[in-house]
Amino acid sequence: PARVLLAWASLTGAPALPPAWALGHHHGRREFGDEQELRRVVAGYQERDLPLDAVHLDVDHLDARQVFTVDEERFPKLPVLAEELRRDGIRLVSVVDPGVPAGSGHAAYDSGAEADVFVRGAAGPVVRGVGWPGEVVFPDFTDARVRAWWGGLCAERLERGFAGFWHDRDEPVSFAAFGEPTLPRSARHRLEGRGGDHREAHNVYALCMARAGYEGLRELVPEERPFVLSRSGWAGMQRYGGAWTGEPASGWPGLRASLALVMGLGLCGVPYSGPDVGGSGRSPSPELYLRWFQLAAYLPLFRTYGGARAGFREPWEFGAEVLEHVRAALVERRRLLPYFVTLAHLARRTGAPWVRPLWWSAPEERALRDCEDAFLLGDCLLVAPVLDPGADGRAVQLPRGRWYDTVTERAYEGPGEVLVEAPPGRIPVFARAGAVVPVR
Fold first, then answer.
1. How far apart are CA 272 and CA 104, in angstroms?
2. Are 233 and 206 a contacting pair, CB within 8 Å?
3. Looking at the predicted structure, is the pLDDT value of residue 310 above 70?
4. Residue 91 burial by CB count (10 A; 0-12/13-18/19+): exposed, middle or buried?
5. Which end of the chain is least crowded, N or C, by CB within 10 Å?
6. Which of 275, 219, 278 is nearest to 242 (CA)?
7. Stated pTM of the model
8. Are 119 and 139 in contact (CB under 8 A)?
9. How far is CA 216 from CA 153, 306, 390, in A?
């Protein structure tokens, strides 16, 4: 597998190095409400001594949900707020959708119409779809000229104080009462000068949008590593950032799927990814939230996210006992940050994912190939999350060699299966004998 991923990275590109702050804990909400509510949530983390490294703002912070705007009534001093948060080690991340409001008076539409950057139909007129703000048009990111134009627009986000971009609905999505919720198949794209229709461009659209955001940040802030997170992408998207796993269903099946998604993305060459803790839909139970949180603390992208309909996901919303266990997971994540930085650099050099299946070093061992409920974090650690309700212990399949429980320090010999305790306060984590794990 290591040779395969090295060859794949040589063909599709080396993974980008995320900024150091992106390896910490992110928190987001669909409905932050206003600046005061955002401050209240951040203060809640600080008062409870919970590490927080980034806050993600969704479409509700925009003026009428229009890209590259801010609702000045609810966020009147966003640059000041962003600077105050940055002094506390917290970055702001802005959601960015590809749909530009169709109508004069919006800066992005006016400049884009003048430069002829929007996707056109087979008959010639610009294709119009439906997005959050209503009728929208879509930049043709398969053209280098359009990507450069979009990169220049990113200056507006930086001036507002944002440190990175979270690309959503970038498949691209157009609300549709019937038919496919995307652009018409006959829509025309430049495809780097040779031309083609949306059947060919659809799968690379988000990849090209990620490139536009990444290159825009590199141009505007050359002294900082860009942070670009995409919901969609294609082979090579790792060159420009990472992915979050969309909206896995709430419930225990969604928790199990989250691990499979991150592991699968890693084997496809995208090492930086992660789910939203708790999934989408209804609010998770305290037990499910805790077990999801404990898993996410060992995944590359570590983000909690919620909203009024899905339930707010701040750790203190789930009771005092869960809060204490969450604090322990956050402290351990912060302690392991040098190891995560190491894994990011190794991925850059070798293409190897951070999260690896147990059979990574021994693909011939059938028992390891059948194991889908544990993973290797780099070469040094084996993480065995709790994926079922009511469990206070679990069986763990160990690869060949000696493994130490990082809490009890008991040694186990692999290959073989062992039964270990998994109380609410932790999930089993093992260190490979002879490993050197940098911590802070």
1. 38
2. yes
3. no
4. buried
5. C
6. 275
7. 0.96
8. yes
9. 8, 29, 48
